[in-house]
Amino acid sequence: MFSGLVFCADCGSKLHFATCKSFDGSQDNYRCARYKSNTGDCTAHFIREEVLRKIVLNRIFAVTAMFYEDITAFMELIQKQRFDEAEKDMKRKRREVEQARKRIAELDRIFKRIYEDDINGTISHERFLKLSVEYETEQKELSDTLQSVLDQFGNTEMKGYLPRQKIERLYRAIRRWEQDGYDEGEMRLWMNDLKKRCRIRGEEAFFMFLFASMVNYNRAVAKRSLPFLTASAIAAYNHSYKMAHAVTGKGKRQEINQNFVKSSLDGTLPSGGDFYSGLENDAHYRARQVQEQAISNLIQKKPLDMNSPEFVRIMNAQKHWQLRRTHASAAGGYAGYYDMVTSFMVHTAVAQAYKDAQVKEYRFIAVIDDVTTTTCKGLNGQTFRMSDMKMGINFPPTYPPPHPCRSITEPIK
Q: Could you tell me which of 280, 273, 274 has the C-alpha nearest to residue 191?
């Protein structure tokens, strides 16, 4: 009954309807979509459908009673609410304009430094340039795909329901996405929801096509990045095993390959999520940005052109999220997603080298300067047993970093 109308108060995600054969009707509830059985990035927010129905009915009765008892006061209240909403919307738009101005200035600063050597040597200058060129190629294809989606929905009534012909077209696209392996995570929830419905709004189908385009782009970028991540892991493993074996005189070297990298990326990053869910979350976020900007342009009767400044800013922001951002201070620095993933893969390979060389203890070594985190300063110089090693806690990369973690380790026993 309330699907698509109820949202989490903390993270803003939809509350999805949850039921099961073992439930009776009183236990049906709406649960935060980003909770994911304590494996997501939100807590277990939920409300029982029975409680929500009572709240809505009480509100309807209260408003109806007010309408019959004092219609003048009712109309004044409605007008005041509309005025307040318009005022809030105006303030929000002013904030967005100011944030956009700051964002442009920040991107200009980042662009000036984008070709500097990397912060901690994890991604070399040459490799970074190669990745940058590859991302540009993929992003050009993404921009063309998004433009076709914008052209397709440019004349669609976003709040209205789609005609049957367009719904069938969406169903065919969903079947294609499922065959391509998109049937997982948030994408799966969206597709399953839309497949069950015969009444679909234009804005829902519009978002679905944008979301799928973003997911496809992020998958292509991930595929292009795999050889680079593998090369980084191999180099880190070989160097660390040689150093560790010199200390212990034990162990047997193994061959690090793409399977090792793929298996590691399927695991949990120090951030708590995994590599692919991070990409999907970004795809969802960017698709929503493009959708909101497109709807804003339609309201203002502006063309839907991916080369226009407002859409270019969205695409640039996505690229800078993926690739590095330089830093000047602990408070203001941060890293691109692939910088942090590369740091994770490098240290995963180092940990594997220590295990293969039968290292018993290692020392944590931090780079101490004005951007070193409090966590790394506290760990600097401490020794830990390999049996107690926990990546992100007492083994690099620590999280959350303001930049790719620059700390290293050395085997001591």
A: 280
